[in-house]
Amino acid sequence: MTAETTDVIEGPPRTGPKLRSSLAARESRVCSGISPVLSPLAMLVTQDLALPGFFSSIEVLGSEHLPLAGPVLLAPTHRARWDALLLPYAAGRRISGRDCRFMVTVTEMRGIQGWFLDRLGCFPIDQGRPGTSSLRYAVDLLAASEQLVVFPEGRIRRQDEPIRLQQGLGRLAVLAASQGVAVQVVPVGIGYSQASPGCRSRAALAFAPALAVEGDGGRAAVHALNDRLAAAMQSAEEAARSAVGRPFASP
Which member of 57, 107, 157, 234 has the greatest number of CB atoms within 10 A? Predict the structure, then answer.
């Protein structure tokens, strides 16, 4: 997301019917929404069968920090492909009463995987040249008090190294805040008992307190938010890693 891109995105309508109409129109241009048939089936398969069958235990820490109302932007660490299944398990419809809407890369939306993701509330963003349709849709989702998930590191990282964030999530959050959306950014740390999770390994997620977002300040506000977010994600990941018996090595 470039500075020029954010300048041309108008604010979402604030009233209910207009917002719902705008959201539906923009959704039709970027994805298929959430299938009323496929979504419950996917929830059953992943949360009742796949996750309990693969992991020996899944622990959720700091669930009191997950807002149950208002616009939420979940910002998790990214350590394995299992992350995308664990987040709905810990924060999805059964827990918060709302779905996790994932912003994913365009490559994730290809093939049979993309067909499923397109019908499970995911929508694509080109990290190199983000289109305004996806960005407007993301802001509309937040304005409608939905729960959006963005992996701010941009890729899976298995090495124990300092967290480095891309600018996309910060720019999206500041953009939404500048248009009057009281977005709550929730840092999430995900930890596994193995660097590459194997069958019967342990998993943990830790939610940190939500970060408030300032809509003024431009790039300075984005950098400030990213600095706070990276530190909070690091602390949350340390808690998750400790919970699965794989703490970070002392410096």
Answer: 234
